[in-house]
Amino acid sequence: MRPAGVGRALAASDVPRDELFVTTKLGNADQGYDSTLRAFDESLAKLGPDHVDLYLVHWPAPARDLYVDTWRALEKLVADGRIRTAGVSDFRPAHLQRLLDSSDLVPAVNQIELHPALQQRELRALHADRFIATEAWSPLAQGAVLAEPAVVDFAARHGKSPAQVVLRWHLQLGNIVIPKSVTPARIRENIDVFDFTLSGEEMDAFGGLDRGLRTGPDPDIFN
Ligand SMILES: NC(=O)c1ccc[n+]([C@@H]2O[C@H](COP(=O)([O-])OP(=O)(O)OC[C@H]3O[C@@H](n4cnc5c(N)ncnc54)[C@H](OP(=O)(O)O)[C@@H]3O)[C@@H](O)[C@H]2O)c1
To answer: With CB atoms counted within 10 Å of each terminal CB, which end of the chain scores lower, N or C?
Structure first.
């Protein structure tokens, strides 16, 4: 038997509104002040509620050079109470700094590719400085870090799987993690990471796994 909610999209009507955190993103083709407001209306009409909890600018798309105008539209949406928090995704330090220099609205979140093989130290330091939450996409590097000897060793020490050890590393750094799995046993495994702690020495050992590996596009050239 299939567990409830697995194998089909979760409908908003499945969960009481006060237990749902609704987030969506603005696509690159909709960047710009007026087009952002239009795209947001369309998203909201599809989703159903009268506001979203978090709205993200999906990529900086620097060649379009519209993300500052786009951010002004998010400022209006926040002021109008239509989004509770505004954030960005895939912004590198220079993109983020330009937003911070042009607006008083600090992004609540930057959702970025982040895993042991791409540790994004400069961005995480900027986030910490400006109280921006770091959200890690591809937190398992789509599986590419699960056979690392150190990860396998720590997993054996703690009686956990390599994926659980990697997710635990993220949580101890303070990252928000959104691992993806279509496998019910893995979905359960990926939430079962709150009954062990990596030591300082183990956390330090992760430092050596950074090799600048991107599984997705480079935000500087993805438009
Ligand atoms: N902001 C952006 O630009 C952006 C870009 C890409 C992705 N994302 C978001 O990030 C989320 C996750 O990223 P992702 O799917 O690229 O990478 P990921 O979560 O790092 O890896 C997913 C892969 O790992 C496998 N996996 C999951 N749990 C596992 C476990 N416990 N043990 C072994 N293997 C496991 C999955 O297999 P099975 O599914 O077969 O179990 C799948 O092949 C996506 O859902 C997406 O929403 C955002």
So the answer is: N
